[in-house]
Automatic annotation (TrEMBL):
<comment type="similarity">
    <text>Belongs to the class-III pyridoxal-phosphate-dependent aminotransferase family.</text>
</comment>
<dbReference type="InterPro" id="IPR005814">
    <property type="entry name" value="Aminotrans_3"/>
</dbReference>
<keyword id="KW-0032">Aminotransferase</keyword>
<dbReference type="Pfam" id="PF00202">
    <property type="entry name" value="Aminotran_3"/>
</dbReference>
<dbReference type="InterPro" id="IPR049704">
    <property type="entry name" value="Aminotrans_3_PPA_site"/>
</dbReference>
<keyword id="KW-0808">Transferase</keyword>
<dbReference type="InterPro" id="IPR015424">
    <property type="entry name" value="PyrdxlP-dep_Trfase"/>
</dbReference>
<keyword id="KW-0663">Pyridoxal phosphate</keyword>
<dbReference type="GO" id="GO:0008483">
    <property type="term" value="F:transaminase activity"/>
</dbReference>
<protein>
    <submittedName>
        <fullName>Aminotransferase class III-fold pyridoxal phosphate-dependent enzyme</fullName>
    </submittedName>
</protein>
<dbReference type="GO" id="GO:0030170">
    <property type="term" value="F:pyridoxal phosphate binding"/>
</dbReference>
<dbReference type="InterPro" id="IPR015422">
    <property type="entry name" value="PyrdxlP-dep_Trfase_small"/>
</dbReference>
<dbReference type="InterPro" id="IPR015421">
    <property type="entry name" value="PyrdxlP-dep_Trfase_major"/>
</dbReference>
Length: 441
């Protein structure tokens, strides 16, 4: 009955406040106020809370539920695999069929000669793994001094200590003051500078400038999201990723693409780098590989790195208990099968156009909606106090947070992002199964 449900919700809220320390949540406020919402079920782009209220999931939760909620084929697959063999170790040469089949599938989808995979349980672990593989590669190449990494300003790469160091969104970077020392942050998306134009006024602090100052013989790799997600959905200009690829080739540095958000159709192509025909040396993935139905991530590795690694006669002493998790891999395989069968990547590309139409409508209707952008179903709206004069909000005005709250009250979940001086960005990244009518809604 209704009142039984109400008392259950209340009980859960009390238990939550007391026992559940939430990620990326203000602990003091949470301990006082309890959970903001208690999700209970979902279907497609919609999720319900325990009160039975239905919300539009405008950001695929954490940019990961790409096939939408309540996908029963994935549930069936998990059940089937768990009933046979939920999990087995991949250490010391042990293996299982879903992990092997998925590896073959991933390699067939990946661009260029990204020809093998190392599995992790998520995106941060994938990035940490990429850093360790890059250093290992250079050790094997007889260049152990190549240990430093370059990441971009506004980057989000996760929260394990190395990934967090590469992350440059200030709150994550400073949390508990943890980090490794060998990561440098470069100004993003300066094509000319990366191609070597020293007369460009932005040259100082670009990737090439940092490499020159630190010495190419000390740099192991450059990590970047093909399109920055949590930092504000920043799409690089055409030519930028190619310029970075060229720079890496010229100076002998590994290019690590963090495709944790952009992988598996999000941008209207299977992988984000394909928008610019670039093949990274290491490609990190997670999230969309299972649409969030199981915890899985990994690193795809180019042939030349793989060739170097397999010469090593010792043990590759790195791996997670859940590397090659049988159930997670089975779910990923089914997820990819559905993406291909239902033309989900094409749908993401087509719905980009619908989203853009909607953005034009909003621009015409609302003086705050000033800049908009979308690549596939990765999109953002930038709010200004006045779009005619490009006048940004006073830094004290929490415009995006307010918009986020108001949308939430109206049963729409979007992602307010506030980065730097007066930049108010709202990210929208719905499940890739969304249709025209739902976008209009
Ligand atoms: N890299 C990018 C680009 C991400 O967006 C995220 C998560 O949002 C991560 C890495 C970290 O992944 P995880 O939270 O699975 O560790």
């Amino acid at each position: 009955s209704l009142s039984m449900n109400q008392s259950r919700i209340q009980e859960l809220a009390e238990l939550d406040k007391k026992y559940f320390l939430h990620p990326t949540t203000a602990p003091k406020t949470h301990a006082e106020e309890g959970p903001k919402i208690m999700f209970s079920e979902g279907k497609g782009i919609f999720v319900n809370d325990m009160n039975g209220d239905s919300y539009i999931d405008g950001v695929s939760m954490l940019w990961n539920v790409n096939l939408g909620h309540g996908q029963l084929e994935l549930a069936e697959t998990a059940k089937e695999q768990m009933s046979k063999l939920a999990y087995s170790s991949s250490f010391i040469g042990y293996s299982n069929e879903p992990a092997v089949r998925l590896a073959e599938k991933l390699v067939s989808l990946a661009p260029g000669d990204l020809n093998s995979v190392f599995y992790t349980s998520g995106g941060s672990e994938a990035n940490d793994t990429a850093f360790k593989l890059a250093r290992f590669y250079w050790e094997l190449k007889g260049k152990p001094q190549k240990r430093k990494f370059i990441a971009l300003e506004d980057a989000y790469h996760g929260v394990t200590i190395a990934a967090q160091t590469a992350t440059s969104i200030p709150n994550f970077h400073t949390f508990s003051n943890s980090g490794i020392s060998d990561v440098f942050h470069a100004k993003p998306h300066l094509t000319n500078c990366e191609l070597g134009d020293k007369s460009d006024p932005n040259y100082e602090g670009c990737i090439r400038d940092i490499i020159e100052k630190e010495g190419a013989d000390t740099i192991a790799g450059i990590i970047m999201e093909p399109i920055q997600g949590s930092g504000g959905v920043h799409i690089p200009p055409d030519g930028y990723l190619q310029a970075v690829r060229e720079l890496c080739d010229e100076l002998g540095i590994l290019f690590i693409a963090d495709e944790v958000i952009t992988g598996f159709g999000r941008t209207g192509l299977m992988f984000g780098v394909e928008n610019w025909d670039v093949v990274p040396d290491l490609l990190c993935f997670a999230k969309g590989v299972t649409s969030g139905y199981a915890q899985l991530g990994g690193v795809l590795i180019r042939q030349h790195i793989r060739d170097t690694i397999v010469q090593y006669e010792g043990v590759l002493s790195h791996g997670f208990t859940y590397s090659g998790h049988a159930t997670a891999c089975a779910v990923a395989l089914k997820n990819i099968e559905i993406i291909e069968r239902d033309n989900i990547v094409v749908n993401a590309k087509m719905m980009e156009q619908e989203l853009k139409k909607g953005f034009e409508y909003l621009k015409s209707k609302h003086p705050m909606v000033t800049k908009t952008r979308a690549i596939g179903l990765l999109s953002a709206i930038e709010l200004y106090e006045n779009s005619d004069t490009n006048k940004p909000f006073d830094i004290s005005v929490k415009a995006t947070a307010q918009v986020g709250e108001e949308c939430f009250k109206r049963k729409l979940m979007i992602r307010p992002i506030r980065v730097g001086e007066g930049k108010n960005i709202i990210a929208i990244a719905p499940p890739l199964v969304i249709n025209k009518q739902e976008i209009e809604q």
